[in-house]
Design a protein that fits this description.
The chain is an alpha+beta fold. The chain is built from 12 helices and 16 strands.
């Protein structure tokens, strides 16, 4: 047997095994193509799509074009008011190509919690987690509330190894409880597990799979033109990788920004409750959790009520500035050395004449 054939068979065997170690070896480090490697739940396109108007598809703007010089940025799209005023994508990446969002997926989970509260499935963000997930009573403090999971203050701690295990495991149900290690309750500690537990809580509260609830209550109401994907752990378990698994087009990423900029409304329809949006972007505390931002309800709040963003591993960033009425989405294969908070603030302050 040829070595190349043997290698192919070995790789195939590794991919087919329900083994976390095999996945780690076969898939190696995370990439922006991971939605092609994992099994995905399909998020269907709408019969009647909605998209923001597009003033220009691409307009050479040196102050923004320079951000592509490091080869890490694959796309930037800017919306001001209701119009796209700048759009540039590189290589195989286009405005219509689903992009892997990694932890930017968390901001969508945060929106789902608000929707579930408005529908009465979750009584309050201050409810104890054990009310919905009694199996967590032994591993979380009795005082751990839904908002603690939302705000990364649940007492959950993860090592890099545990994060990798969660990312590649074919059975999130079995793995999730085993990854928990405690830190003081109420102390900020970013943990993917907190978001994964939120997904479990939503499923338990609503009695529906997370992806089904998402499709009916968020995805289809936003009227997507293209299919999206949410990766799952395995064909057998079908648990969505809630902390990182969304893959949707840049247009659909922009829509989440429009919803949170405009009090939960998109195209005249209330998608996320206005009260939840207000609660999310006006945290009852201030802190410097990461990059000087306050982490609240799966978002980074830079300035209460006016400036906030969601972020993913490779520098997938959705930035909203209500003061300048600007939304910027950046996509890339790495963050690079760019201070993206500073750059996105600078972009949002550019006057309209730069985009004509």
């Amino acid at each position: 047997m040829k070595i190349s054939t043997l290698a192919t068979l070995l790789a195939t065997a590794l991919l087919c095994q329900a083994c976390t170690a095999a996945r780690m070896i076969a898939f190696n480090t995370p990439t922006t193509h991971d939605s092609e490697l994992f099994l995905n739940a399909i998020l269907p396109a709408a019969d009647t799509p909605f998209e923001p108007s597009c003033r220009v598809h691409y307009n050479a703007c040196p102050t923004i074009d320079s951000l592509f010089e490091d080869d890490y940025t694959t796309g930037i799209i800017i919306l001001r008011g209701d119009s796209i005023i700048y759009s540039r994508f590189e290589g195989r990446h286009t405005i219509d190509t689903p992009a892997d969002l990694f932890s930017l997926s968390k901001s969508f989970v945060g929106a789902l919690v608000g929707i579930a509260i408005s529908q009465g499935y979750i009584s309050s963000p201050h409810d104890p987690v054990s009310k919905y997930l009694p199996q967590c009573a032994e591993i979380l403090s009795d005082s751990t509330c839904v908002c603690d999971l939302l705000n990364m203050r649940s007492g959950v701690h993860e090592t890099h190894w545990q994060m990798a295990h969660m990312y590649y495991t074919p059975n999130l149900d079995r793995t999730t409880p085993r990854t928990i290690r405690r830190v003081p309750h109420g102390e900020y500690h970013y943990a993917n597990l907190s978001t994964q537990l939120l997904a479990c809580l939503i499923e338990q509260a609503t009695g529906r799979p997370l992806t089904d609830y998402f499709i009916d209550n968020y995805w289809i109401p936003t009227a997507p033109r293209s299919e999206g994907y949410w990766s799952v752990d395995s064909r057998r378990n079908l648990n969505p990788r809630a902390f990182c698994g969304l893959s949707i087009t840049p247009i659909d990423v922009l829509k989440l920004g429009m919803i949170y900029r405009d009090g939960g409304i998109l195209n005249g329809r209330q998608i996320v409750p206005a009260e939840w949006v207000h609660y999310t972007v006006n945290p009852p505390y201030t802190s410097a959790d990461r990059g000087g931002a306050t982490y609240h309800c799966q978002w980074y709040i830079l300035e209460p009520d006016t400036e906030f963003m969601g972020q993913g591993l490779m520098g997938q960033i959705l930035y909203i500035n209500r003061t300048t009425d600007t939304i910027v989405a950046r996509f890339g294969i790495r963050r690079g050395k760019t201070d993206w908070t500073a750059e996105l603030r600078r972009i949002s302050a550019l006057s309209d004449r730069y985009f004509r």
